[in-house]
Design brief:
heterotrimer; A: 264 residues; mainly alpha; C: 314 residues; flat
């Protein structure tokens, strides 16, 4: 499975490097030209407001990657403590208090949630991350909870409890560690889901400024020029696709290795 | 989905009219609609027109709010007058109008016309319609336009003559007869599920949010339309409208992107019609609060704008530059005022003089209309070059217009077609209901009142010019451009008027189109 | 069996609770939106007096709690209220929008379930084999493409360049059923990838399970093992994912409806939120919420049935 890993790493590396170093290389904004013109000193042409597409590509990776990462991190910052606490507590009422609101949230269609919250929040990376996280939290918490319940039933946890270990230690030291693999896999899919949601939000015009330097916004806003200047759409689209596909491949490779290890 | 806003309001984004044929000096060559009126019209067929949609799901013409509503209403109903290409009122159901010497009573003669059920259009129908619009309980949009009429004192002299009594002298009264949404409905009508009007098309069927099917009215007073049937469809997404047109599922698509137009113009698959110099694009400065209560700061901002860059960047080049005045090319527009250009040194000097060296301003904008946020971003860059820090604040698009009416100090703004007089009276008087620049000057109000009691057109023109010079010198509207309005049709569609901006008589005038 | 029954009872009660909480939550959310229907309707003509008249006409000047109680009372009587903007009953909006949305969703599901099972089982046939790799790469690549990008691509290539299919549903679905092909394809693409991968993973795990190995030792045919012994066990996680996908399907439906001009519930929802038409948003939330609750319920019951030992979420 090495080729899969290598391919995945290569696919992820390009967009990640661009996102990381792009803003440093971008330089100051040049004068605007007429929108959607190929060439003329802009090697990727110009975008819908006459900006240089290459500069936008350099600048546009960071928000996409950051929002996806931040949203995923935020999801787990909420889901992990809630899920673990609910699974490990022996007080049923606490479990109910923690998990039932999430059951309600999960029943609100994410679309309604996204549209309504986006109208209430001011657009920008912070609001968008929060929004994407909000949609993902209930599901992630349930995954953590289900996994932790299974682990908590193991004799080892019972033994730790008997020997008077603190519940924090049990939660972090043992349960979270046992869940590592499940969580990694789940986080990977969530990252890809966040990328997808960020792109779709740009299409729906929610949560992002319409002229933001952002790959997802570029794909959507440069669509009208597809026949005049396809690079303005294709380059950012390819970068997002590479990021998502690469993440998935890496994940697969890691799981595969993990899976084999476990079986052994 | 945010290429173009889903819901386009008439005034906010409508095309400000431009008479390309008048000597107003806006002169760019217009794009001639191919073969318009070249061959003799052919009768028959169904034309499918697709508009950006959303919103209003009734056929009540007085609720007209969006472009698709206006297109529906004008196919089914008529107004007493409508706007010509230079936004001067031209008679429709009214045959003629005549003021008395005081300009306070106007006698309007109706032409012989009939509703779709055969009843004649009478003076009572006119009064019923206007009273319905002016009902204080109902908040119809056209109510503000009808405000000058004293409807209690107005009456029908005979079935074909109405005497309108006004609350004050009003030289531009015909503008009221052409106001948006001031349609004439049969007396007593409240139910519009199967509307009966006097327009060129008769109602066949309506599916809200989807399609309105109409059939030709052979007895229309202006002559029957060429088309047998007209179907008005709705597609919020611009790319869908283009696809439907390219794929032969529609024959007429309203409101396209400049890039779409460029990609398909001259390729033969669709015909692109650009309604030049359309929607006014600009920023509004609140003239009653710092820093814009100082006229020098306002003038400095006029000098900061690089109008060409704004038009190229925010409108994809599909438009013309503005000169800080509304209604370029309209009747009464002072075309001989020199074009303002960017002068960063001049701007710095003015700001220094005003004691606003390191000025910081918040610019409110919102994706409520195409190009708003882009223009704000471009102006921010331009202002930085003059040492002014502009912070762009993107607001909620659904409540934007209300938010910037009294909130903030500096905001994106645009306006569609209306006569210059309407712009002045609705936005620039102390009593105006939508005075977004808070321009409240008693002497300015006085000039307006004087113009309205002046019967002599030359003297009135001079008064309008004085008012507009004041605005040009230091008003609150920074008008940087006028956007094209882009319509496209299938090659077989003929008769699209090339010079008719949205909301004027010849815009979306499907009774004049035919299928070759 | 009693445990299953009590579990089912608890699960049903939870579902009811969810169904009741959703409209309340959505009401709170819509109240938190900036501006109300009067502001939105006034649009670019925000004359304060006009807005006040509109607000009074819509009864928006009454306290929020009162409006919610009235609405909830109506709901109990089966009355969803009327639109603030057009005055048409909310049920009309639902009735008009439901048919196209349901048609799209049903076609998508009808295609999605067998196809994802087939792909998953095929891929699991020989782990790491060429077929597995081909399916794996293809599903990964397609999964990374958002609906709108795929839709634009399909329209411009299949419909406009090649002219094989109509590009939009303008002009009606009934007149020309072919207009549904592209929207359904776009809708199915991403869930097909995720579910077929889940089925594949489940199959691999199941084929490795003791009872399947047992069956193999007993000399059952490979096909029989695959379809009757392994597959049911592989379905539990996929069924739950499918239920969650239906929720995402709604999201995709909005995009697809916009791109292809299908006048369904997604479009109605988008317009209603923009217009602050609270009764319509509420009505849709009730329908969507019920739909989601019932689906999750069904999936949990199914999962419990297929794999009784798994602690299906409840």
């Amino acid at each position: 499975m090495r080729p899969r890993f290598l391919l995945g790493a290569a696919l992820v590396a390009v967009p990640l490097l661009l996102a990381l170093c792009g803003p440093l290389l971008a330089g100051p904004a040049g004068p605007r030209a007429v929108s959607f013109t190929p060439g003329q000193g802009h090697w990727l042409g110009t975008d819908f407001t006459g900006r240089d597409v290459w500069r936008q590509v350099l600048l546009g990776g960071r928000p996409v990657v950051l929002v996806a990462l931040a949203a995923t991190a935020l999801t787990y910052a909420v889901a992990l403590p809630v899920g673990l606490a609910a699974a490990l507590t022996r007080r049923t009422w606490l479990e109910e208090v923690l998990m039932r609101p999430l059951d309600v949230l999960i029943a609100v269609p994410s679309l309604v949630l996204v549209l309504v919250c986006a109208a209430a929040l001011s657009p920008g990376p912070v609001g968008l991350s929060a929004l994407v996280a909000l949609v993902a939290v209930p599901d992630a918490a349930r995954t953590v909870h289900a996994g932790a319940v299974e682990v908590a039933a193991r004799p080892a946890v019972e033994a730790m409890r008997m020997s008077g270990e603190s519940s924090a230690r049990i939660a972090l030291g043992y349960t979270a560690r046992s869940l590592r693999r499940t969580l990694a896999a789940d986080a990977g899919t969530r990252l890809v889901g966040a990328l997808y949601l960020v792109s779709t939000a740009a299409f729906l015009g929610v949560g992002v400024q319409p002229d933001a330097s952002d790959w997802a916004v570029m794909v959507d806003r440069n669509r009208p020029g597809l026949d005049l200047q396809p690079l303005a759409v294709l380059v950012p689209a390819a970068l997002i696709a590479a990021l998502a596909t690469g993440t998935n491949l890496l994940l697969d490779a890691a799981l595969h290795r993990g899976g084999r290890g476990a079986r052994r | 989905m945010n290429q173009l806003p889903r819901r386009q309001f008439l005034l906010g984004t409508g095309a400000a009219a431009l008479a390309l044929t008048t000597a107003a000096g806006c002169g760019t060559g217009s794009t001639r609609a191919p073969a318009a009126d070249a061959a003799s019209p052919r009768q028959g067929g169904r034309l499918r027109a697709v508009f950006a949609g959303g919103g209003n799901e009734t056929l009540d013409p007085h609720l007209t709010n969006l472009f698709v509503d206006a297109a529906r209403a004008k196919a089914l109903f008529d107004k007493l007058a409508d706007y010509g290409p230079d936004l001067a009122a031209v008679p429709r159901l009214a045959e003629s109008w005549e003021p008395d010497a005081t300009l306070r009573t106007w006698t309007v003669k109706l032409r012989r016309a009939a509703f779709h059920d055969g009843r004649p259009v009478t003076a009572d129908d006119v009064l019923y319609s206007y009273r319905r619009i002016a009902d204080p309980e109902r908040a119809f949009r056209a109510r503000a336009s009808l405000e000058p009429i004293d409807l209690a004192a107005s009456r029908a002299l005979d079935p074909a003559t109405v005497a309108f009594r006004l609350k004050r002298p009003y030289a531009e009264f015909p503008n009221v007869l052409a106001a948006f949404g001031a349609y004439i409905v049969p007396g007593g009508t409240e139910d519009f599920t199967a509307p009966v009007g006097s327009g060129p098309f008769r109602f066949t069927s309506f599916t809200p949010g989807r399609s309105l099917l109409l059939a030709r009215n052979p007895d229309h007073w202006e002559g029957a339309p060429h088309l047998d049937e007209l179907e008005l469809l709705v597609a919020a997404e611009e790319s869908a409208r283009v696809s439907a047109l390219l794929g032969g599922q529609a024959d007429y698509a309203h409101e396209l992107n400049p890039a779409t137009a460029r990609a398909h113009q001259g390729k033969g698959r669709i015909e692109v019609v650009r309604l030049r110099n359309s929607a006014m694009q600009g920023f509004v400065m609140k003239t009653d609060r710092p820093p814009f209560d100082d006229e020098r700061v306002r003038r400095a901002f006029f000098l900061i704008a690089d109008r060409r860059e704004l038009v190229d960047g925010a409108l994809s080049g599909a438009g013309e530059i503005g000169n800080d005045l509304f209604g370029k090319g309209c009747r009464y527009y002072p075309a001989d005022l020199p074009q303002r250009t960017q002068d960063l040194e001049g701007a710095r000097a003015l700001l220094r003089a005003a004691g606003a060296g390191n000025l910081k301003v918040t610019l409110d904008t919102s994706p409520v209309a195409a190009g708003f946020v882009e223009a704000a971003g471009i102006f921010k860059e331009q202002a930085a070059r003059a040492g002014v820090t502009v912070e762009v604040r993107v607001g909620n698009k659904d409540t934007y217009w209300k938010d910037v009416l009294d909130g903030g100090t500096f905001a994106s703004y645009r306006s569609g077609a209306m006569p210059i007089e309407s712009h002045l009276s609705q936005r620039l008087l102390s009593t105006s209901t939508t005075n977004a620049t808070h321009w409240k000057r008693p002497d300015f109000d006085e000039l307006y009142a004087r113009a309205q009691s002046t019967a002599d057109p030359a003297a009135r023109t001079a008064l309008y010019e004085r008012m507009q010079r004041r605005l040009h010198d230091g008003g609150g509207f920074l008008v940087w451009g006028f956007a094209d309005w882009i319509v496209a049709t299938a090659p077989r569609v003929r008769g699209v008027a090339p010079d008719a901006p949205a909301n004027t008589l010849d815009w979306a005038r499907f009774d004049r189109l035919w299928l070759a | 069996m009693t445990s299953l029954r009590s579990w089912t009872g608890r699960r049903l009660a939870l579902g009811l609770g969810q169904a009741a909480a959703v409209p309340a939550l959505v009401f709170v959310l819509t109240e938190a939106l900036p501006g109300d229907a009067a502001d939105a309707l006034a649009g670019d003509d925000p004359d304060p007096r006009r807005i006040a008249v509109l607000r009074a006409a819509m009864h928006l000047d009454r306290p929020a709690r009162q409006r919610f109680l009235d609405w909830a009372g109506g709901l109990l009587r089966g009355d969803l209220g009327t639109s603030l903007v057009s005055g048409r009953p909310v049920t009309r909006y639902l009735a008009d929008g439901l048919a196209p949305t349901l048609l799209l969703a049903a076609l998508a599901l009808a295609l999605l379930v067998p196809l994802s099972l087939l792909l998953g089982v095929l891929a699991a046939g020989r782990e790491g084999g060429p077929l597995d790799r081909a399916i794996g790469s293809a599903t990964l690549a397609v999964y990374a493409v958002p609906e709108f990008a795929l839709g634009v691509l399909l329209v411009s290539v299949v419909a406009l360049r090649l002219g094989w299919l109509p590009p939009t549903a303008v002009g009606g679905v009934r007149e020309q059923p072919a207009v549904l092909v592209l929207p359904v394809l776009v809708l199915v693409a991403r869930p097909l990838c995720s579910i077929s991968r889940l089925v594949r993973a489940g199959m691999l795990a199941a084929l490795d399970a003791p009872h399947v190995r047992q069956a193999r030792r007993h000399g059952l045919s490979e096909a029989r093992i695959r379809w009757t012994h392994a597959l049911p066990n592989a379905l539990a996680p996929a069924a739950q994912q499918l239920a969650r996908t239906c929720d995402w399907l709604l999201c995709g439906v909005v995009v697809v409806e916009a791109l292809f001009v299908v006048p369904g519930l997604g479009t109605v929802l988008l317009d209603a939120v923009a217009a602050r038409d609270v009764p319509v948003v509420q009505g849709l939330a009730v329908v969507f919420g019920l739909f989601t609750v019932v689906l999750n319920l069904a999936a949990d019951l199914l999962a419990r049935r297929l794999a009784p030992r798994s602690e299906a979420a409840a």
